Amino acid sequence: MSQTKYIDDIKEIKEIMNRSSRFISLSGLSGISAGIIALIGAYVAYQTVYINQDFAYGKAIITNESLATLLLIAIGTIILSIGTVIYFTTRETKKRNQKAWDHQTKRLLINLAIPLITGGLFCLMLLFKGYIGMVAPLTLIFYGLALVNASKYTLNEIRSLGIIEIILGLLATHFIGFGLLFWTLGFGILHIVYGFVMHVRNQS
Q1: Contact 176, 135 (CB under 8 A)
Q2: What pTM was computed for the model?
């Protein structure tokens, strides 16, 4: 056996082992689409909160009616984002001749869901207690923790994205009045940037 053939065999074995331990068929387009949806949701939320107010630090007044509207916007944004992620990721797995649902997918979703569900319930509790300003920072922090927790089952870029989301969330706790801006940056801009990077890398 030649040295070149031996090296090729080693690379093939490493690739098989990587596929067996990681769900690697995430689509960059899913990140881009989720980011665009988040930007649209943030714009609608901005119109809801600041339609008759100046955008100033800590000056937003949220009524019960606008709060209910914000919850509907958040739910709609989440549902649409998840839908696009499922669509583009499923399409990517078909391109790679991989299964969209297997043991590694389950492990990925479980590790992603635990921090997300915990954070979501915690944010709802704070919301009902009147701590509205903490919701945006905490959603970023728990989302970042979820990405870091699930990153060992997918691409390494997801871990770095999660860390940046956590940092943004911590900064947002200091600038409470600018939570919507941090939320827009974390869920909108960052998703588009990372999605574009992954898409270009997959195409190369």
Answers
A1: no
A2: 0.77
